[in-house]
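Internal ticket #5521
Category: modeling
Description: The requester needs a full-assembly model to guide mutagenesis choices. All entity lines are attached below as received. Residue total reported by intake: 307.
Assigned to: D.W.
Attached entities:
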Amino acid sequence: MVAHQFDDAAQQREASTLGMWVFLATEIMFFGGLFAAYTAYRYKYPVGFAEASRHLDLLLGGINTAVLLTSSLTMALAVRSAQVGKRAQIVGFLVLTMLLGLAFLGIKAYEYHEKFAHHLVPGASFAFGGMHAREAKMFFYLYFAMTGLHAIHMLAGVAVVFYMTVAAARGKFTPGYYNPLEVTGLYWHFVDIIWIFLYPLLYLIA
Amino acid sequence: MTDHVLPVKTYVAVFFALLLLLAATVTVNRLHLGEFGVVAALTIAVIKTILVVLFFMHVRSSSRLVWIFVGVGFYWLMILLILTMSDFVSRTWPPFSGGPL
């Protein structure tokens, strides 16, 4: 399974890993713009951000962090199963990864619903008591932009993992060739890292 | 580049370390440390990131070229954040009036 432009399987694997890291570098800058906006506005509105942050559900956010960390473990074990050539294990771990990803999105959807119900979504029905409504509105703009972009990445991740599950079940991956699975893992862990920062920055200000 | 197959127990150990660090983040938040709280939370997040990158993302056993690409990604992010914030932070400074300009 070595394409003709490569000398051997190791060089091919190196090339795909490197290519994925180039993509992830662009992703760091994609999210980086939002993190820069967040930093600037938190610096400008420290009190408003702290007040708004209290309206987020610390427990649900924490559970979601644990769910994502667990999904990273199952993803890493799926890649390992490919390295040692255990096809059934790859499929099992990938299915677990997908289920955990969907659980994350389910909890996120519930949180979004709560925000809608409590008039915390920036827009015509936005209502926030106290002196810092404008500042709090900026916090929620950033909250929805950052977690929304992250959720879109999770959706894409679940779709790719599903595709990989089908490929693994058909026996496409062997200890000598598992590059697609390896780079899918890199993407999944990257999305996990974004959440590792989003959780303390959005939920744990107060 | 040879393949390094990490033992399952390494992955599980990293996973439990990550969960412990998550508990640490929540605990630090409960202590209400003010300004220091942000620094502590970000430090913990960076440690978690290093664990994920080195072990789950296999960078520990990757080539030097991959290390450079990973480093460059974070370096650019630092340029973005530091240059942006050096503007916002210095806006409130009093104007400089002692020089020839």
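Resolution: model delivered.
Comment from assignee: Chain B touches chain A through 46 residues (CB under 8 Å).
Ticket closed.
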